[in-house]
Amino acid sequence: VEDAQGLLWLGSTSGLFRFDPKSSEFASFTHDPDDRKSISNNTINTLHLDADGILWIGTPNGLNAFDGKSGSVVRSYFAADGLPGEAVSCILADGNGDLWMSTNNGVSQFHRSTGVFSNFSTADGLPGNDLTGWNACSRNAQGEMYFGGFAGATVVRPDAPVAHGFTPPVLITE
C-alpha cells in the first residue's frame, strides 16, 4: 500500500518492508520476541492503511496496528483480545472506518472507536469458518464486502442489520 508521503509498504514472508521511491531505499521491520512493539509475525498476510495513517497488518499470529512514523506497533490484537482466530487473512474498511477481516475462525468486525470485535461464524451463515484463502477479499462501490475461504465465499453488507445467533429450521417429524 502507498501512504500519504508516497512511501510503499510491502508485506512478505520475511517481514514488513518500507520502500521510498524517491531515494530507492528499503527499511525492514521484523518480529522480535523480546520487543512487544515489533510485528507479531514475519509473515504478512494483508495490509490496510486507514484514514488516520495507521497501517493495519494481518499475520498468522494476530492483528497489528503499526505507526509508520515511529516504525513500531502501537497495539497487537489476539484471540485473548476478542479476535476470533489468530490468523488474519484480509482486511477491508467499511464506510464508518471500522475494519472487517477474514480469519481462520470466521469474519470479524473491529470497531475502531471502542476497540471491540464483533465476530461472525457458520452460526451466522458463513459457508465455513476458515476464511484464510490467500488474501481473498474485495469491496465493491456499494460497500459490499466479499470474503473467500476454503468452504466458499460470503458477502458482508455492513449497513444491513445483522441478526446474531442461529434460528434452527422447523421440522415436524410426527
Q: What's the order of the H and E elements?
A: EEEEEEEEEEEEEE
Helix and strand content put the structural class at mainly beta
Mean of the pLDDT scores? 92
Share of helical residues: under 10%
Biggest sheet record: 4 strands, antiparallel
Q: Biggest sheet: strands side by side, in what order?
A: 4-5-6-7
What coarse outline follows from CA principal-axis ratios? elongated
Overview of the structural elements:
The chain has strands spanning 8-12, 15-20, 25-29, 46-49, 54-59, 62-67, 72-77, 88-93, 99-103, 106-111, 116-120, 137-139, 145-149, 152-156. The chain is mostly beta strands. The strands form four sheets. A four-stranded antiparallel beta sheet has the order 4-5-6-7, with no helix packed on it. A four-stranded antiparallel beta sheet has the order 8-9-10-11, with no helix packed on it. Strands 1-2-3 form a three-stranded antiparallel beta sheet, with no helix packed on it. Strand 4 and strand 5 form a beta hairpin. The chain is elongated, with a radius of gyration of 17 Å.
Short description:
By secondary structure, this protein is mostly beta strands.
Show the helix and strand layout.
Elements: E1 8-12, E2 15-20, E3 25-29, E4 46-49, E5 54-59, E6 62-67, E7 72-77, E8 88-93, E9 99-103, E10 106-111, E11 116-120, E12 137-139, E13 145-149, E14 152-156
Antiparallel strand pairs: 1-2, 2-3, 4-5, 5-6, 6-7, 8-9, 9-10, 10-11, 12-13, 13-14
Features:
four-stranded antiparallel β-sheet, elongated, mainly beta, 0% helix, 174 residues, single chain
